[in-house]
Design a protein that fits this description.
This protein is of the alpha/beta class and 205 residues long. It has eight helices and nine strands. The radius of gyration is 17 Å and the shape is globular.
Length: 205
């Protein structure tokens, strides 16, 4: 069977419809890796998280996040419209439930980019259908340098993020896979292979 035919046949096969959950401390390249994966594997449905925080420079509404008011977000909570949600740094982040359920019913794999607490909630909801992948920095010092270069956080915020990163890293043993993002190309290759293997897509050379 050709790679193209294999890829098409994956849609509609409910048994292969996985939820791929990618988590990482802030500054580990999670967004870059996920965006590239979505571009290379259009079969993946991109679950765009909803948040009450303001967009950062370069972020696109509806692509990076669905930016909403706190009141709107709380109304969705009341309607039980989130598969999971968390509050971080004073802002809410959540995964809309309907999008995930609709795609799984169609047999289409879904990609989620969420934090460790959210990942644990999705794993509990979909223990057999979820694949958890953790992206690690080469070291905490390397992560500190990346956060400083980003120039979007104060020194106090950076220290807070580093403290949170250490807590998040303690969850890595609860993930199915972990990838050290020391080199972006190597990290992406590892991520791509994991998704193709678990979703039954074409092998990556």
């Amino acid at each position: 069977m050709s790679a193209h035919r294999r890829k098409k046949s994956a849609i509609g096969d409910r048994s292969r419809a996985k939820i791929f959950i990618v988590s990482a401390p802030s500054g580990c390249g999670k967004t870059t890796l996920c965006n590239r994966l979505l571009k290379d594997e259009p079969i993946l449905a991109d679950s765009v998280s909803m948040t009450t925080r303001r967009p950062r420079p370069g972020e696109t509404r509806g692509k990076d996040y669905r930016f909403v008011s706190r009141k709107y977000f709380q109304n969705i909570i009341k309607q039980k419209g989130f598969l999971e949600y968390e509050e971080n740094f004073g802002n809410f982040y959540g995964t809309p439930r309907k999008f995930i359920e609709d795609n799984l019913k169609k047999g289409r794999p879904v990609l989620l980019s969420i934090d460790v607490k959210g990942a644990m909630k999705v794993r509990r909801a979909y223990p057999k259908d979820s694949v958890l992948i953790f992206i690690l920095p080469p070291s905490i010092n390397a992560l500190r340098e990346r956060l400083c270069l980003r120039r979007s956080d104060s020194d106090k915020d950076i220290e807070h993020r580093l403290g949170l990163a250490k807590k998040e890293i303690s969850y890595k043993k609860r993930y199915d896979y972990s990838i050290v993002n020391d080199d972006l190309e190597s990290a992406y290759e590892a991520l791509h292979k994991i998704v193709n293997k678990e979703a039954g897509l074409r092998p990556v050379s």
